[in-house]
């Protein structure tokens, strides 16, 4: 299993090893031992799945505030996505910066987004399924967002990204400057 830091060191692209044979392949998708060796102690308590029918569907950017901040281990099991994390830890050298990766079943990769980040994605194919484990239960009162195209963050979304697909709440999320909440880095 390969753990590769993104442009933001705490955000990791994980590529499981596929053991191929004449039947196909076998892969460990998640190993608590290997994961914690790179990401530190982590407990996942909920697993989510979404289906997005249209190419260019944008979901996000979302995060939960403390005490229900969530780390997310994201995987695309059908179709493909461009997955994005934005650093909301105000004492981080990469505060306000974003990291992105393409996830797909063909690549077999996952994206680890620790607590303290906003998360969103854009689908690159129709009928795309995204599956992700999270480290805290859904808490609607702590469910917050960041505007997907905040110019101060400057995410370079794929050209297929279609703002018509945004949910009502995601059309009107605050910008980074307007966010009422900030996180801090672990151990700070
Ligand atoms: C996130 C979530 C939503 N819901 C409900 C609330 C609502 O009725 C319905 C759809 O919710 P949303 O519109 O927020 O779904 P969606 O826009 O797909 O939200 C997700 O976006 C991605 C980018 C993330 O990072 C996730 O954490 C989550 O915020 O599902 C739950 O029951 N549990 C959950 O954990």
Key terms for this structure?
single chain; 188 residues; mainly beta; Jelly Rolls; 6-stranded antiparallel β-sheet; 5-stranded antiparallel β-sheet; 2 helices; 13 strands; globular; binds dtdp-4-keto-L-rhamnose; EC 5.1.3.13; dTDP-4-dehydrorhamnose 3,5-epimerase; dTDP-4-dehydrorhamnose 3,5-epimerase activity
Offer a quick outline of the entry.
With 188 residues, this protein is mostly beta strands.
What does this structure look like?
By secondary structure, this protein is mostly beta strands. It has one domain: Jelly Rolls (Sandwich). It has two helices and 13 strands; from the N terminus they run ββββαβββββββββα. The longest helix is centred in the first third of the chain and has 8 residues, at 32-39. The mean pLDDT is 96. It binds dtdp-4-keto-L-rhamnose. Dtdp-4-keto-L-rhamnose (TDO) is lined by residues 48, 50, 59-60, 62, 72, 119-121, 138, 167. GO terms for molecular function: dTDP-4-dehydrorhamnose 3,5-epimerase activity. Catalyzes the epimerization of the C3' and C5'positions of dTDP-6-deoxy-D-xylo-4-hexulose, forming dTDP-6-deoxy-L-lyxo-4-hexulose. Its EC number is 5.1.3.13. It is an enzyme of class 5 (isomerase). Pathway: Carbohydrate biosynthesis; dTDP-L-rhamnose biosynthesis.
List the helices and strands and how they pair.
Elements: E1 2-5, E2 12-15, E3 18-21, E4 24-27, H1 32-39, E5 46-52, E6 58-64, E7 72-78, E8 81-87, E9 98-103, E10 110-113, E11 117-123, E12 128-134, E13 143-145, H2 168-171
The structure holds dtdp-4-keto-L-rhamnose.
């Amino acid at each position: 299993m390969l753990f590769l830091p993104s442009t933001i060191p705490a955000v990791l692209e994980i590529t499981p090893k596929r053991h191929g044979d004449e039947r196909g392949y076998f892969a460990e998708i998640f190993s608590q031992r290997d994961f914690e060796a790179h990401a530190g102690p982590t407990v996942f308590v909920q697993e989510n799945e979404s289906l997005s029918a249209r190419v260019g569907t944008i979901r996000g950017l979302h995060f939960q505030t403390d005490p229900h901040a969530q780390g997310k281990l994201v995987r695309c099991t059908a179709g493909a996505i461009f997955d994005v994390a934005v650093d909301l830890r105000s004492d981080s050298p990469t505060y306000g910066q974003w990291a992105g990766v393409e996830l797909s079943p063909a690549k077999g990769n996952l994206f680890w987004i620790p607590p303290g980040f906003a998360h969103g994605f854009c689908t690159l194919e129709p009928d795309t399924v995204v599956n992700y484990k999270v480290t805290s239960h859904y808490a609607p009162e702590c469910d917050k967002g960041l505007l997907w195209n905040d110019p101060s963050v400057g995410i370079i979304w794929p050209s297929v990204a279609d703002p018509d697909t945004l949910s009502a709440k995601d059309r009107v999320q605050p910008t980074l400057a307007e966010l009422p909440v900030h996180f801090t880095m672990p151990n700070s």
